[in-house]
Amino acid sequence: MLKKSSLRRITIATIALVIVGIIWLFPTKKDEFPQTINYVEADLSPIYLVDNNEYVARTQMIIKEQDEILRIKEIIEALTIGSSKKDYIPNGFKQIIPEGTKLLEATLDEGLLKLNFSKEFLNVKEKDECKLIESIVYSLTEEENVKEIMIFIEGEQLTKLPNSKEKLPATLNRNFGINKVYDMDTFIDTSMTTVYYLSKFKDSYYYVPVTLVNNDNTNKVEIVIESLKSSPIYQGNLMSYLASSVELLDYEIKESTATLNFNDYVLSDINSNEILEEVKYTIYLSLKDNMNVKEVNFNVNNTLIDNFKL
To answer: Which one of 7, 16, 232, 275 counts the least CB within 10 Å of its CB?
Structure first.
């Protein structure tokens, strides 16, 4: 009886050792193929949608396509009400192209983009028709090779706004303006300058371009800086962090670079030698729209503080 018990214990111990040996010699799948996580940065592109305050505003969305024409089609899809992109629209924004509109054809040749839409495009409400053109023009001219746009409806060029019948230029570009504010005494010798302001939805900030139409023939750099310093701004929901005490001492535009020289009050903290990101963005975006500037040197009393570009 004792021999049988001892033999049983020896057998169990041997089997256990064999199992341990197998586990040790043959690692689990988890050990053999360790998991790695690769983080891919999203391709966020600027796009102009209508915000809660009824401005056409600059926000960002993921645009997946790399081919130019496919990117254009994806952007148009993002602007179209009820499209497959509706769930990707940032909070606080809404689409503008009438529901059911189809982009029948898009061609890009030497900077001129021709868009041919279905007739549903004409279903836009009168209060939205100007915003519709602004949204398309500003969104698509963010693409590097798109300089001008022509809009067609089932093969016929759109020469007037659908409801008001206001005439449209033969080709559309950013000179069309956006969120236009008129302040002029005469229609002779008018000037248009686009200035970017800040707005906010909940905890998110974004930028709103406003085109000032007036008889002011001051240099556009000076108009931008003076407008951003002004208080109050045209509507209470637009903001600028550029202090009224800021002075633009001098400036130079050379090729695609602007060099602006300010006094100390442009600094967020005089002891830190830093300029608020919101200030740099509003100035940069404004100069980019008006003067095709691609980078801005921010100087304080002739000392370079920051070189800013997107």
So the answer is: 232
